[in-house]
Specification:
Distance between the termini: 37 Å
CATH architecture of the largest domain: Alpha-Beta Barrel
Shape: elongated
Number of helices: 11
Strand content: 15-25%
Oligomer: single chain
Low-confidence stretches: none
GO biological process, one term: nor-spermidine biosynthetic process
Protein name: Carboxynorspermidine decarboxylase
CATH superfamily of the largest domain: Alanine racemase
EC number: 4.1.1.96
Largest sheet: 8 strands, mixed
Number of domains: 2
Order of helices and strands: EHEHEHEHEHEEHEHEHEEHHEEEEEH
Helix content: 25-40%
Keywords: Decarboxylase, Lyase, Pyridoxal phosphate, Spermidine biosynthesis
Mean pLDDT: 97
CATH class of the largest domain: Alpha Beta
GO molecular function: diaminopimelate decarboxylase activity
Structural class: alpha/beta
């Protein structure tokens, strides 16, 4: 199947671009000895797990179901972190995860001994209280009132016996200068406990495969923690694995006018790309320009009843017409993992584009996928 023959709406992930990203990540691993694992919360397309597993050390999960996915579909190192673990899930988590990271000393006190008896590596998430994000407080784990991680004032050293690693995750789509700043705060607040540890996890949010990313600073940060504290270093990017490696193909269903030209698509911001509304951000669209840049500007919208189901304003060289296909870029990350069926909106199909340019649909969704989520 060729790209232009795919059904719409459809997520398409480019295998060659995924591998390009993986080779960059693999280079960091080879030059530093750090371990990199896939954060499944951003990208969990199991069709490509065999390829990802050729390059990365494993997966990390945010709870039981993701942990099972990593265990079953990749079968390498399997890490998990959750703000709190459920009593009725913890034993299964311990049976399939080799690293379990606790969010607080109360969780550590409750479950640490059970994890150690299971032979698992036990970690503690720390909050270095160092915000490096601007304008995205919803994604800032160091914001005042955050539920994430133990602060220095929370520390109970008597509970650190058996804890072999510390974990922090404070970044979101950021460069390595922000990691460098964060590491200084980690050392200032928690440096006295670092020599007791075997490993440290830098978390995710590192845009390592972005064109302007400073790899040399990242690698210097890794080597400093290795050499100064004799620590094994983990990173768990999600976006960097699939950054700019996917598309969402949609079709124009109808055209409307209300002070501005409006195109109603067979996709939806709220159902298929919710980060457009949550972040918010304007997804790239091939062949388009900013509002007013090209002769014909349209507001691209979805099918749902939500008035704000708006993807954004885009301009085009020619007028849009019903049936036109539009291709949004960078749609592999935080897209298919966050889709929903509000209003009974069908989920997009999922396809892979192989290295020769051929496409194959690996999953399609229908009415039963909507119905089974309801009671």
């Amino acid at each position: 199947m060729r790209f232009e023959e795919l059904p719409t709406p459809c997520f398409v992930v480019d295998e060659a671009l995924i591998e390009k990203n993986l080779k960059i990540l693999s280079g960091v691993m080879q030059r530093t000895g750090a371990k990199i694992i896939l954060a499944q919360k951003a990208f969990s397309m199991t069709t490509l797990y065999p390829l990802i597993g050729e390059y990365l050390n494993g997966t990390t999960a945010s709870g039981l179901f993701e942990a099972r996915l990593g265990y079953e579909a990749m079968g390498k190192e399997n890490h998990v972190f959750a703000p709190a673990y459920r009593e009725d899930e913890i034993d299964e988590i311990l049976s399939i995860c080799d690293h379990i990271i606790f969010n607080s000393f109360s969780q550590l006190e409750k479950f640490k001994d059970r994890a150690l008896r299971a032979g698992r590596k036990v970690g503690l998430r720390i909050n270095p209280e160092c915000s490096t994000q601007v304008g995205h407080e919803i994604y800032d784990p160091c914001t005042p009132g955050s539920r994430f991680g133990a602060k220095r004032e929370d520390f109970r050293p008597e509970l650190l016996d058996g804890v072999s690693g510390l974990h922090f995750h404070t970044l979101c789509q950021q460069n390595s200068d922000d990691l460098e700043t964060t590491l200084r705060a980690v050392e200032e607040n928690f440096g006295e406990w670092l020599p007791r540890m075997e490993w440290i996890n830098f978390g995710g949010g590192h845009h390592i495969t972005r064109d302007d990313y400073d790899l040399s600073t990242l690698e210097a940060c890794i080597k400093r923690m290795q050499e100064q504290y004799d620590l094994k270093v983990y990173l768990e990017p999600g976006e960097a694995v699939a950054l700019n490696a996917g598309y969402l193909v949609a079709s124009v269903l109808d055209l409307h006018k209300n002070g501005i030209d409006i195109a109603i698509l067979d996709t939806s911001a709220t159902c298929h790309m919710p980060d457009v509304l949550e972040m918010p951000y304007r997804p790239p669209l091939f062949g388009s320009g900013e509002s007013g840049e090209k002769p014909f500007t349209y507001r691209l919208t979805g099918q749902t009843c939500l008035t704000g189901d708006v993807i954004g304003d885009y301009s085009f060289d020619q007028p849009l017409k019903c049936g036109d296909r539009l291709v949004f870029g960078d749609m592999a990350i935080y897209s298919m993992v966050k889709t929903n069926t509000f209003n009974g909106t069908p989920l997009p199909a999922i396809a892979v584009q192989d290295k020769d340019g051929d496409c194959r649909v690996v999953r399609e969704f229908g009415y039963q996928d909507f119905k089974m989520r309801l009671a």
